[in-house]
Amino acid sequence: MKATVGERPPQSEKKLRGRAMPAKAIMVLCMLSFFFGLLFSGSMWVTPLQKKEEAANALIDPKLSLITHRFGEGDQRDIIGEVAKTHQAIQSLDKTISALEMELAVARTSQTATSSSSLDGSLSTNKVLKKAFVVIGINTAFSSKKRRESVRETWMPRGSKLKRLEQEKGIVIRFVIGHSATPGGVLDRAIDGEDTETKDFLRLDHVEGYHELSMKTKIYFSTVVAIWDADFYVKVDDDVHVNLGMLITTLARYRTKPRVYIGCMKSGPVLSQKGARYHEPEFWKFGEEGNRYFRHATGQIYAISKDLAAYISINAPILHRYANEDVSLGSWFIGLDVEHVNDKSMCCGTPPDCEWKTQAGNVCIASFDWSCSGICKSVERMKDVHNSCGEGDGAIWNVLT
Questions:
Q1: pLDDT score for 41
Q2: What is the mean pLDDT of residues 305-328?
Q3: What angle do the packed helices 186-198 and 145-152 form, to 10 degrees?
């Protein structure tokens, strides 16, 4: 039944049609829907990204992640301090490991040292290194018996005093020599006989020769570090006067230094002329003609710490040798973290130079003549130098090691 004009629609139809929504309300509803959509969409994309960043950070720095987990978010101020402490601990551990590796390598070297042979001629594999403060090797030659006697009569103790010095003070002194080109020949027998009487030699597995001094130096340090566990190792020539008390007192000041190289540092010219006394065949490696060597200790006397001697022993096969022994030694330490100590008391002149210094209270460690690379006519003059510049025979027994 249709309603006629002017009649009201039935009540049920009115309820179904409802009331029309205003246009402003529809616009507001649309805008709200849009903003809610953006908010929901943003949360969906940011959350996975944050998770990925957290995972990446955990992989990049696990130590920081562990510390954060340990202390919690409320204690972030201590994290940086803990990281610094951890870093310091790791550095300390690295140094300890490095030291142990060095000792292990030295121990391995000691097993092959020629002087560690037992009575039956076999090598001792369970050898314990002898403890010492310093080992002083006096470089000598087959023809230098009179020089050795002049040293024994002046600054080097003999016999029971030499043994007592080693036992009470940890000061080991030996004349250092290799063997002749014909082992067992007359030259070697002469040294064997002298050693039987004096007991103050260290024999090296080395063929003696003036042009082999760099090799002898390398073998010397490799040998002594395999026999004695010392704080320092010294090389000195047999025509140089030494005041042992002053030497030991000076070395003791550097006892805490791990890598120290002590001597009279110089930088002499690189001689390219053939026939010159100190001719350097590899002069071209040092730049243009007329250049000078890098700083290194003069060869008459120098001292190195245990770590440096161990370094020479471990790397002996690949350490390059130049014509001059002192240059070779200096080159082995170039590029290493080594403290070079330039001590001019290790290169005083002979009287009157060292005599004036002694009278002024500045006793020299070593004295020699530059013009002779040692004391000129040392056999005749060593006693005079000792009387004029010596510290007194009792000085060595009063030093602390």
A1: 52
A2: 94
A3: 10
Nearest to 221 by CA among 337, 139, 342: 139
Four-point Cα dihedral 194, 196, 201, 202, nearest 10: 130
Phi, psi of 355 (to 5 degrees): -70, -45
Max avg pLDDT among 12-21, 81-90, 185-194: 185-194
- Could you tell me if residue 166 is left (phi over 0), alpha (psi between -120 and 50 degrees) or otherwise beta? alpha
Q: DSSP string of 233-301? A: EEEEETTSEE-HHHHHHHHHTTTT-SSEEEEEEE--B-B-STT-TTB-TTGGGGSSTT-BPPPEEEEEE
* β partners of residue 339: 260
For residue 208, which of 138, 145, 142 has the smallest C-alpha distance? 142
Q: What are phi and psi of 359, to 5 degrees?
A: -65, -30
- What does the alpha-carbon distance between residue 220 and residue 236 come to, in Å, rounded to a whole number? 12
The length of the chain in residues reads 401
**What per-residue confidence (pLDDT) applies to 46?**
44
Model confidence at 192: pLDDT above 70: yes
Who contacts 131 (Cβ-Cβ below 8 Å, separation ≥6)?
170, 228, 229, 230
